[in-house]
Each structure stands twice: as structure tokens, then as C-alpha cells.
Give the backbone structure.
Amino acid sequence: MVAALGIGGCTASGQQTPAPTTENTSPAAPPNTLAADDVQTIVDRCSTGLGIDATALGAQIAAAPQPAAEAALFFASSDQCADIPSALGRTDVDSFTSPLSFIEQPCAGRTVVSFWAHYDDDLIFGNPVIDDELGSGACVRTFFFTYSDAGEGESTYASEREKGIRAAYNAMLGRSGEWIDRSVTLASGMTVTMTSPSDDDRVSLLFLRLPDGGLSGTTFIYTGQQTLEKLLSGALPSLRTIDAGRSVSVATLEKSVAEILAGYAPDRVLTHLPKEAPDSAGDHPDHSSVGTLVSRAVDAGAAPSAQVEYAVGYPSAERAANITGAQLERKASLFAVYAAHDPVIGCSSAQSCLARAHFGDWLQREYLIPQADLTRG
């Protein structure tokens, strides 16, 4: 019967006839599953400001990979439309966890993320590691929790300290150019100021600008006696940033730390010792509070524990000096670049900074404790 019908068999003349083929006419799966309403939201909020025709922008969104499309929707929803064009062009991000993955370009080398309480903590307790990493081609993303204002609030003192930390990173990079500031709203809802060199994308500094807690953790009446230590203890439900008065809770801080780690996917993480560590006794309360927040995120799986190291703070002065010679000269010189902007420290050369009480001791030391060796009790 098959032969008689001439299907996949022989015709009457004995010639073989090919079996018919069935073409796959189903449409290819779209590159993303963004709903039509979400696409319209992006177009309505951002096409005019971007100077892109609405139809053209809609087509770009429709053709974007899922993570890029989700990033575009986030940027539109958080009034960060200017980041949409670069986000839509990114195909190297596996999932949308943070806008940082799309704002920052991929790093060609290693990525180091560090979290500090004040604008000089990285230079004192995280160097020469940070400087060495930059020298080897790594990217460094540094997050500062407080405005480092010593109770003065929004002031020339605090803004000068920010200038000082930029100048110190300029010295590490061997440049003297300008920095570009911008506001970034994270997926956690927290807004920070990001500042980066105009011609070197290997460094980004993130400023949250919470009140400086002071050595006692309860001082500074002018800024309402708001401290990280009180926030973590539950004595305060939230803190307000000094620059914009934004409310920040413990939950928001914890989510933001985890998001920063996910967004940057670092190879190395540096921060202060947590309050629960014996070696943090006598340290600045802001330091140990930051360490506690980061250690909580690491304990919850935000970063592989093998990547994380905790810096011994003020109590490092009780240990043997381990930074000497040319390495010490370099570390102290970088600190002096910063300190020239900090009238409280009042030194502007390596030797004068090394002669400063306490600071000279800290500069001669750097003790980093790996997560595996961290004790808490």
C-alpha cells in the first residue's frame, strides 16, 4: 500500500521517492520574558530622557537577554534611566542581582571588595594588601559606612576626608585626575554615592554617609547620638544618612552587604573584625559593627568563606610590627596623602605620620585573619 501511494517507497517506474520532510515552523523562544506592561513602563519613563524613539527602545528591550531586560526595568523603576543603554548591551551577566553588575564594567583581573567604617580605615588596616592588589591589575570596590564626620555632621571636615581618600587612591593608581560622582540606588532600596576616577574604572568608592559613632559608641549629640552599635543592638530601629536623611535599618544594611558581594562577585573580601571576635576588644565600635554586619552576610553564604579576611584594628598596636622598609615607606606615604586633608591627624609626610601617636603604631602593622581562623565568642 505504501508503494502504491508513492510515499517513501518505489514508483511504478521503480524510482525511489523521498519521504516528505516536516519543517519546524514554531517561533524561536524570545530572549527574555519581560511582560508587555513592563516594557511599556521602561519606554514611558525613559525613552524621552534618553532621546531614543519609543519603538526603537521597545525593540531593544525585546531583543535583550533576560538579565539585561530585568536590569532595564529596575533602572526605569528607580529613576536611573541613564544606565539602560549600557545595560541592554551587556551579555556577560548571568542574572540580575544588583545594578552594580551593570553599572560597572567587567574587571579584566581580580576583584577585591572591602567594607570599612571610616575613610582612612582601608589605608591603615587594609594596606599594603589593597595597594598590592591594584599594582597587580586588580579592581578594588570599597564601601564606607559612615560619613567619618566625628560628630560634626555635614561639614567641611567630612567632605575633606572624602577628598583625602580619593587622593590616596589616586596615589595608588599613579594618577592625579578628576573623579566622577553619581547616586546609585541598589536593589535593596539603599542609595549610595559612587565615586570613580574619570579615566580608570578599576576603582570605585561607595559612600553611605551614616553618622560617625565615636569611640564610646554613644557620643555626638549634634548628630542625635546615632551609632551603628546602637542600631545592631536594637536600641535604635534605624539610622539616617547625614547627607540626605535617608532611613537605613539593620535589615537594609544586611541586604545591601549581601547585594554588593553578589553584584561584584569578588575574589577577595576585606573588612573589620566583628564585635564577637576576641581580638576586637578595644577597637572602635564602628569598626566592630561593620565587621559584624559583613560576617553575618558571609555566614549566610553571600561570599565563599575562603575569600574573606578580617583586619585587626586598634588592638593591632599590641602585636609585633610586620610592615617595614620600603613597604612601610610606601604605606605611610599613601596615608600621608590622605592625612593632608584630615586636620585632626595633622601630618603630610610619611615620617610625620609615623611619628603621630597611635597612627605610627597602626601603620607599621597589618594583621588579616582569614574566615577559617576567625573565633567568635
